[in-house]
Amino acid sequence: MPRKIEFYDTTLRDGTQAEDFNLSVEDKLRVAQKLDELGIDYIEGGWPGSNPKDARFFREVREIKFKHAKIAAFGSTHHPRKRPEEDTNLRALIEARTPVITIFGKSWDIHVKEALKTTLERNLEIIEASVAYLKPHCEKLFYDAEHFFDGFKENRDYAVATLKKAREAGADVLVLCDTNGGTLPHEIVEIMREVKKRLGKGVSLGIHAHNDTECAVANSLMAVLEGAVQVQGTINGFGERCGNANLCSIIPNLLLKMGYEAEAKKNLHKLTEVSRYVCEIANIPHPRYLPYVGRSAFAHKGGVHVSAVMRQPRTYEHIAPELVGNTRRILVSDLSGRSNILYKAQQFGIRLETDDPMVTKIVEEVKKREAEGYQFEAAEASLELLMYRLIGEPKQYFELLGYRVFDMQNPEEGHPLVEATVMVRVPPGVGEVEHTAASGNGPVNALDNAIRKALERFYPQLKEMVLEDYKVRVLPGSPGTGAMVRVLIFSRDQQDRWGTVGVSHDILEASCKALVDSLTYKLFKDRHKKKS
């Protein structure tokens, strides 16, 4: 009978410790929902006792209904000179009101003496008291044994003693952490076996590996083979220094190649989408050479490889890319992408048969847009509109005839005064022309306000819509200020959230394209809901 494994994602906490990787509260909430769609079992939201941003996340995440995932709050054992009930860190974990709490404690005697500045005996008391105090306040409590493998190598008796105290106090899973990332796979095997022998039957172990020796994925897999029931990691391996164990490699390895079962197996086709989504939200390029989910993971270029793959994909592919939501790319032809388009069409409610010529037309248009710099992973509203336009829907609700943006310094206020003027025609081609202006907090906000002001007389439902977030990325190519830019806009109304994208050499034009798509999508989806 296949063994079950649980996936614990710490992108929102450990991942954000990576250089140049930052997420706002709104970003973290969106990523959490995407991880839930994938079927991740536990999502670590942050450290509520460490900063106001994480505290706000835990307040707002309570309003979200997750299909499967449980949110975890992260923190440390209590201060050596305090009792658990006096410790603000432990109180913050309880006040976060999450179903899962994860705390870490010291396993390495050098950390106890040098970092905590306390005795080995006192550290054991701290671990036991912290776990026992928190246990009644959550459904599950996980204990992260920080620096466990380094601690075990130097003082195995003490390292195991810390685990025993956490287990006796009620920890549901003891997570062994390779915090410095210096342990090798054969050492993981040896230490896991010794730990199980010393703890006896009935203990649940987990693994939390860092990637400083490029072994985090391998170490995680070996730990599971040795009995770990929980794997901690991050999407794309983001994390401090060289990163954490990459769940985008661990999940398919365990589920497709090693025979393990998990909720994520039902949604494995969303893995590539989630991987790219996290990068888009963090406003950083997606690493193209990532295994399984990278753009180059199933790319074939010329010669013998292409000839063989076209006859039998297994000749140069270790799995079918569709299993993880990726796409085979034949770099010298246009024969890739049909399955992805068919999947998305079905998701958007568009009926297309495999041999429908429209599939080829959509593939070609998407490839053309991607060559121009578009990416649709976090802008599915733009992709949905594009596909419907190619099959003859939706109608164009308005026509943007032109716009101007004035950016003037206001000496009295001390900040720029921005005004946008727009002309729109409703309906396009033959309708009434509306000419209006509006100010805003920056050029994009002013442009958004002006377009909305012009349209709300015709479409009052646009008043429900809010521009939630705005991101700009300079694309590789032309140097300096002449480069192409990609603008990603997130919008929402009372029922939905959606993303749209625009690309241009001109940042305002790119922004305008994304804004027009966002407004159009609101009108389009409202019309479709009425029809259904």
TrEMBL record:
GO biological process, one term: L-leucine biosynthetic process
Annotated CDD domains: DRE_TIM_LeuA3 (cd07941)
Name listed for the protein in its UniProt record: Citramalate synthase
Any one GO molecular function term: (R)-citramalate synthase activity
InterPro entries assigned: 2-isopropylmalate_synth_dimer, AIPM/Hcit_synth_CS, Aldolase_TIM, Citramal_synthase, LeuA/HCS_post-cat, LeuA_allosteric_dom_sf, PYR_CT
Pathway as given in its UniProt record: Amino-acid biosynthesis; L-isoleucine biosynthesis; 2-oxobutanoate from pyruvate: step 1/3
Catalytic reactions on record: pyruvate + acetyl-CoA + H2O = (3R)-citramalate + CoA + H(+)
Record keywords: Amino-acid biosynthesis, Branched-chain amino acid biosynthesis, Isoleucine biosynthesis, Transferase
Pyruvate carboxyltransferase domain residues: 5-272
Chain ranges passing through the membrane: none
EC number of the protein: 2.3.3.21
Enzyme class: transferase
Organism, as annotated: Thermodesulfatator atlanticus
UniProt keyword Amino-acid biosynthesis, yes or no: yes
Key word Kinase present: no
Family: Belongs to the alpha-IPM synthase/homocitrate synthase family.
NCBIfam families in alphabetical order: citramal_synth
